[in-house]
C-alpha cells in the first residue's frame, strides 16, 4: 500500500492512497488547484485513480474533486444524502459500503454532525492484515477537536447528532486505529485543532477534551467555534454545483 497526506490551503489535508500491486488508487478531499498533482502522482506510481471522494460538501475551500474525476475518468463520490442537493451527477456512497482497491479495502462510514452528508473512510490493507489500519475522518473528528456543527444554522441539533456519531461509530473502533483528519491547526472548521496531522483513537479518547463530556456538556462546548469565513456560503454553493 502507498499513502500520501497532502497539506494544502487553509490548513486542509488531502489524501492519496491505494494498492500498487493492482495499480488502483483513491483521492480524497482534493482542493481546487491541486488536481494536476494527483494526476502526476498517479502517473509516477503507474496507478489509475479508481475513486475521487469528498468526505462532505466543503465550506472552507473550493473542491477540486469533480475536476479531477473528469480528468482521469473516475467516479466522483459523495454520500447518498447529497442526492437532490447538488447540481451534478455523482456516485452515491452508502453507510457500510466497501470500495475495492485491490489489496486495499475502504469501508464507508456515514458520520453526520458536522454536516448531514459527512462520511469517514475506514481503510484496511490486506497485505498488512485483516484488521482496519486507519480511518480518514474528514471534518468529523480532528486531533484534539471535533468538527463545527453550525454550518446549517441548526447547531444544537447537529451537535447532538455529532455526539451520537462519535460515540456510536468512531469511538467503537479499536484504540490502535490511526486517524487522519481533514484539517489541522489554522482551520475554521473547528476550535482547538492540533498542529499534529494524525493521531490514534486511543490517544484521542484519553486526551481530546470533548470526547469525555456527556452529551449536554458536549453540545454546549462545541458552540464555541471560530467565525465563519466570509466566503463560506459561496464555497458551499460552488461545491454543490449551483449558480452563485
Rg estimate, integer Å: 17 Å
The biggest beta sheet, please?
6 strands, mixed
Question: How far from one another are the termini?
Answer: 40 Å
Integer count of domains:
1
Total of DSSP H or I helical runs spanning 4+ residues: 6
Derived from helix and strand composition plus strand pairing, the structural class reads alpha/beta
User: In the CATH scheme, what's the topology name?
Assistant: Metallo-beta-lactamase, Chain A
Q: Strand tally, please?
A: 14
Q: How much strand?
A: 25-35%
Segments where pLDDT lies below 50 for 5+ residues?
A: none
Instruction: State the name of the first-level CATH class.
Output: Alpha Beta
What do we call the CATH homologous superfamily? Ribonuclease Z/Hydroxyacylglutathione hydrolase-like
Helix share bin: 10-25%
State the order of secondary-structure elements, H for helix, E for strand: EEEHEHEEEEEEEEHEEHHH
What is the molecular shape?
A: globular
In which order are the strands of the major sheet placed? Answer: 1-2-3-4-5-6
Amino acid at each position: 500500500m502507498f499513502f500520501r497526506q497532502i497539506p494544502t490551503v487553509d490548513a486542509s489535508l488531502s489524501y492519496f492512497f491505494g494498492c500498487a500491486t493492482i495499480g488502483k488508487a483513491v483521492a480524497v478531499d482534493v482542493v481546487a488547484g491541486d488536481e494536476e498533482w494527483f494526476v502526476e502522482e498517479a502517473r509516477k506510481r503507474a496507478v489509475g485513480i479508481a475513486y475521487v471522494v469528498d468526505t462532505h460538501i466543503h465550506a472552507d475551500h473550493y473542491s477540486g474533486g469533480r475536476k479531477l474525476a473528469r480528468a482521469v475518468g473516475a467516479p466522483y463520490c459523495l454520500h447518498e444524502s447529497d442526492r437532490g442537493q447538488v447540481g451534478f451527477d455523482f456516485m452515491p456512497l452508502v453507510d457500510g459500503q466497501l470500495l475495492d482497491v485491490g489489496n486495499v479495502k475502504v469501508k464507508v462510514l456515514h458520520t453526520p454532525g458536522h454536516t448531514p452528508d459527512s462520511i469517514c473512510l475506514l481503510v484496511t490493507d490486506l497485505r498488512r492484515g485483516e484488521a482496519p489500519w486507519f480511518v480518514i475522518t474528514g471534518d468529523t473528528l480532528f486531533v484534539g477537536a471535533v468538527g463545527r456543527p453550525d454550518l446549517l444554522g441548526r447547531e444544537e441539533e447537529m451537535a447532538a447528532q455529532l455526539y451520537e456519531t462519535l460515540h456510536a461509530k468512531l469511538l467503537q473502533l479499536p484504540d490502535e486505529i490511526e486517524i487522519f483528519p481533514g484539517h489541522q491547526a489554522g482551520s475554521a472548521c473547528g476550535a482547538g485543532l492540533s498542529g499534529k496531522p494524525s493521531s490514534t483513537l486511543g490517544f484521542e479518547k484519553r486526551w481530546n477534551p470533548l470526547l469525555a463530556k456527556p452529551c449536554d456538556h458536549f453540545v454546549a462546548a462545541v458552540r464555541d467555534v471560530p467565525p465563519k469565513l466570509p466566503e463560506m456560503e459561496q464555497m458551499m454553493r460552488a461545491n454543490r454545483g449551483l449558480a452563485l
